[in-house]
Amino acid sequence: MLKYTAGELNFFLILMQNITKILNNRWYECMRYDHPVVGKTLVVSAPHTINVVQEKKLLKMALQARPNHAPTLKKLIYVLSLLEEKEEAIKLISHFLKTVQHTLDDRILIAKSYKLIGAFQRIISLFEPIGQCEDARVILLISESYYFQKQYQCSYRYLSKIADCNDPEVLLLKQKLNKINNNLDQCQLDSYAILENDPKNVLAKNYIFEHRFKNKDSPSVKGRHFDSSLLKVLSIESFIGSKKLSEFNNDVCMYLDAREGWIANPKRFTTTNGKQLLKLYAINQNMPEAFNVLKDVISKALAIYLLENESLDSGYFSSIGTEYLFNLWAIELHKEGFQRPHIHSDAWVSGVFYPKISSDVTENAGSIQFGISNHNNEFKVIKTVVPKEGMLLLFPSYLSHRTLPTATDSRRVSLAFDIRPYR
Questions:
Q1: pTM, 2 dp
Q2: Which of 9, 11, 94, 258 is 20 to 30 A (C-alpha) from 133?
Q3: Nearest Cα to 351, choosing from 307, 399, 318?
Q4: Contact 209/399 with Cβ under 8 angstroms?
Q5: pLDDT tens digits, residue range 306-362?
Q6: How far is Cα 415 from Cα 14, in angstroms, rounded to an integer?
């Protein structure tokens, strides 16, 4: 007679319940849960009860029972795209379009999956059969596709059809096109108008910050004034009690090494010669105690950070309530690995914790830099921070930043996170 532990029986029960919900078009019950409060201020924002690798396995099992079940097909297409399994995703999309009666909303979901895997010409082709479409979502997707194919005039022509310039994705694309045309003055005017209604708008703040520091005649803006309080650097060693920092960092790295779902050189993110592990806080994951401690440290550091900067910019740094959405992901860089310049456009305060940094990281190799970027991949450095093991760094999400290529084969592991008001 087979014997199972209580934990194994519970796993099989949950698995069968989720399969039943999928087959009965009740995905929302598998995927959503009430946000638990973590510590005093941080609320887990990952909406999944299972990680994406487990989702893929579960969805494929469901499709064996009902091969043409539209909700399951759409969800699997999204998951495959999220994991950047391009060939399988494209094959399943083709099957979906041929066998399932679909709507414009379905095509938009498919287009977003194409976007995740970088199939931009397929997005344009996807909407050709429906002719002229006034749906702003479709127009934006087509405009983005032309942009990523460097057809900037076509991109701008489509983008100009969208009246709502306050939409974050429209604003981001408009920023990119204005930078190509070197039209930051217009960006600044638009940004001030947006900040009147939304003082925490990251893209508008980025416009104004970069306009303030822009200097056409100099390759560096190090001489300009930069308020050092925008960057909060501290060591977590004093927060972890009697445990040694090396043991704490080792617990974090061992857990990351055991996790499935790492994506090498993800196309939709900025990592090069490295890999990323998304959404670490799935609700049924047994996270080690080190991660609970880390959340508590980040919560305390955030409270201090906001107090220190509220007088600098009360509109942006003022606290809203006592709870914040929190998203955490892991990054591992290999030899010559780096992150391209970027901002965190859908966040508010961002940060990074370093559990594994080699001793050969310097200002010129493996460090993180803050500054101003443009479409020619030029980056004007304002501030450089050399990471150390156990370092926690917080900064406003509107600051453009990058990492310099690592010089050796030594591991460089970091945990990046975003925080935004929980409204």
A1: 0.73
A2: 94
A3: 399
A4: yes
A5: 999 988 888 899 876 667 888 899 999 988 999 999 999 889 999 999 999 988 888
A6: 30
Q: Match 């097909």 to its residue by tokens.
A: 73
And the tokens for 348? 């508010």
